[in-house]
Amino acid sequence: MSVLLIAEHNNKELRPFTLNAATAASHIDNDVHAVIIGHNCEEAAKALSKLEFVKKVIQVEAAYYENFVAENFAPVIVKLADNYSHIISSANTFGKNLMPRIAAALDTSQISDITKVIAPDTFLRPIYAGNAFATVKSKDTKKCVTIRPTSFDACESSGGSASIEKAEASEEFSKTKFVKREEVKSDRPELGTARVVVSGGRGMQSGDNFKLITSLADKLNAAIGASRAAVDAGYISNDHQVGQTGKVVVPDLYIAVGISGAIQHLAGMKESKVIVAINKDGEAPIFSVADYGLEADLFEAVPQFLEELNKLNTIQK
Amino acid sequence: MKILVAVKRVIDYNVQIRVKEDNSGVVTDNVKMSTNPPDDNAIEEAVKIKEAGKATEVVAVSIGEEKAQETVRKALAVGADRGILVKTDGVVEPLSVSKLLQKIVEKEKPDLVFMGKQAIDDDCNQTGQMLSALLNWPQATFASKIEIKDGKLEVTREIDEGLETIEINVPAIVTCDLRLNEPRYASLPNIMKAKKKPIEQLNASDLGVDISPRIEQIKVEEPPKRKAGIKVSSVSELVQKLKNEAKVI
Questions:
Q1: Which domains does chain B have, with CATH numbers?
Q2: Number of structural domains chain A divides into
Q3: Exposed site from A197, B32, B115, B202, fewest CB < 10 Å?
Q4: Are both A27 and A142 inside the same structural domain?
Q5: CB of A88 within 8 A of CB of A28?
Q6: Does any CB of chain B come closer than 8 Å to the CB of residue A101?
Q7: Measured in whole angstroms, how far is the alpha carbon of residue A231 from the centre of its chain?
Q8: Nearest-CB residue to B248 (from A274, A282, A293)
Q9: What single-letter DSSP state applies at residue A293?
Q10: Residue A293 contacts B where some CB pair is shorter than 8 Å
């Protein structure tokens, strides 16, 4: 049977992780249909119909779908679920909020945050913040699965020519009202999706010294991360925290500056492709996961790093 | 207003996780166990609401083995009034936990149910949302701020793009983010007092819910080991390696 992908969008454009989720869905079955629920989301529906792997788009419109309230979305998908063997979404805050509500209504035991499709009923997923990986097999006839976006490549955003069908809206859930959304506007890439992350730890010694991290991040077009110790010490706000109790990041390059490498921090970054550690304590655990370790005083090394970068003709963006 | 708070006993977040040699799971014997960190935030918030005079009772509930009683006891020590332990053996999936909690909710009739947004052992992030689906109640997940206004809750949620605010009617489910508050430590006198607070014990089998697992855990493995890295002697060597060897800048 076919796979139903839940598209994430802002009513105008698709959110990028929809492309990763489409790839994951295609690993389960070739017949991927995608549902888009929103308000005046024609453009996003068209973009969805052009995605590689997507064979059919189901568009569901109502004014009360404008703000993606899970209590409104879940019944729509539950109604469509009869025709599908799997329901797929990203394991970001959109999918995490929505999918369990669907799974419970379908009496299905959800499989969260998979990093690999082993078979249509068998998946690999990290547990204990990536300190272990479990291979799990679902015995439910209908499967609700959320996928870790960074573990699947984004599909091509053109080339597809899926038909767009309209489906009926469900009743409004009146006990939850959207009030407002404050999106963090930043020229910087998002921590969760950045190609490069520069993080500072307790070794930064003050919030003011985090300017060094900012300069390095500016140079490399990187997101800024921090260890829990740096957050607890008040050097930087909580939303920068990388680790088991913060964000899990998988960039191409992770630069840890003045971070000792507590277990809880390592859990959030050790899947990064290339890890650099700069720390004056040569025994710091961060060096055990670093591809390139530099034992040095960060207050000398980071300015030198900037100088060396300035000498380069090109820096990848 | 009455608040039910669900707490889970998990391996302490500072413990290095070890996978069993037969790949059947992770080692839990002789390992320090604690309350799931965001569940501490859930208890703290409920107690704060009670201290502000906006709630009359805070009930802590845990689902798990006999020893989960310690987790309930800890919630009592930081201000919950009484506890409930639903005893189970083996793995209980979030769907089953939410069905058991539904039974407790039907019995206790709370106005609010709080719990952490995610357990740090199975990392499922499902139970709160599933419970609210089963009860057809509003859900406010990943809450970093809760305000009570005329029988409604205004909740700020941590989402990937920033912050979202929603207003929900009571009764409702709230799953708590670590940013919601700073959980207090239990004082010694309060730990002593908590020993006298009642904990009702139930068996999951008495609640008439099928909690048999739907997911077979085939194996648990160590994450792929990183190959040993190198130490570089200078910043210029580092930059050269990143440029020419790793090709990431």
A1: 2-245 (3.40.50.620)
A2: 2
A3: B32
A4: yes
A5: yes
A6: yes
A7: 21
A8: A274
A9: E
A10: yes
Same domain? A100 vs A246: no
Bridging pattern class, strands B152-159 and B162-169 = antiparallel
pLDDT tens per residue, range A150-177: 889 999 999 999 999 999 999 999 999 9
Sign of the CA dihedral A233, A235, A237, A240? negative
Matching residue, tokens 């979030």: B94
Mean per-residue pLDDT, A38-51 = 98
**CATH code at position A257:** 3.40.50.1220
Chosen domain end from A148, A167, A186: A167
Which ranges in A13-92 belong to alpha helices (H)?
A: 17-28, 42-49, 70-80
- Residue A15 covered by a domain: yes
Does one domain contain both A54 and A157?
yes
Mean pLDDT, consecutive 10-residue segments, chain B of 249 residues? 98 92 95 96 98 97 97 98 96 97 98 96 97 98 95 93 94 94 95 97 95 97 84 95 93
Across chain A, mean pLDDT equals 94
pLDDT at B85: 98
Same domain, A105 and A60: yes
Same domain? A150 vs A14: yes
pLDDT at A164: 98
Three-state SS annotation for chain B = CEEEEEECEEECCCCCCCECCCCCCECCCCCCEEECHHHHHHHHHHHHHHHCCCCCEEEEEEEECHHHHHHHHHHHHCCCCEEEEEECCCCCCHHHHHHHHHHHHHHHCCCEEEEECCCCCCCCCCHHHHHHHHHCCCEEEEEEEEEEECCEEEEEEEECCEEEEEEEECCEEEEECHHHCCCCCCCHHHHHHHCCCCEEEEEHHHHCCCCCCCEEEEEEECCCCCCCCEEECCHHHHHHHHHHHCCCC
Cα–Cα distance for residue pair A278/A260, rounded to 1 Å: 9
Interface pTM, i.e. ipTM:
0.94
Which A residues, 102 through 121, put their C-beta within 8 Å of a C-beta on chain B? 102-105, 107-113
Range A6-19 average pLDDT: 96
CB-nearest to B17 from A99, A132, A291 is A132
Which range marks the domain in which residue A67 is found? 2-167
Q: CATH number for the domain including A99?
A: 3.40.50.620
* Residue of A90, A113, A128 to mutate for B, most B C-beta atoms under 10 A: A128
A173 assigned to some structural domain: no
In a domain, A179, yes or no: no
Q: Is residue A186 part of a domain?
A: no
Q: What is the mean pLDDT of residues A62-83?
A: 97
Q: Are residues A146 and A205 in the same domain?
A: no
Which of A49, A143, A59 is CA-nearest to residue A102? A143
Pair (A162, A20) in one structural domain:
yes
Answer for the pair A302, A257: CB distance below 8 angstroms, yes or no. Answer: yes
Rounded-to-integer distance, Cα A205 and Cα A211, Å: 12
Question: Do A163 and A210 sit in the same domain of this protein?
Answer: no
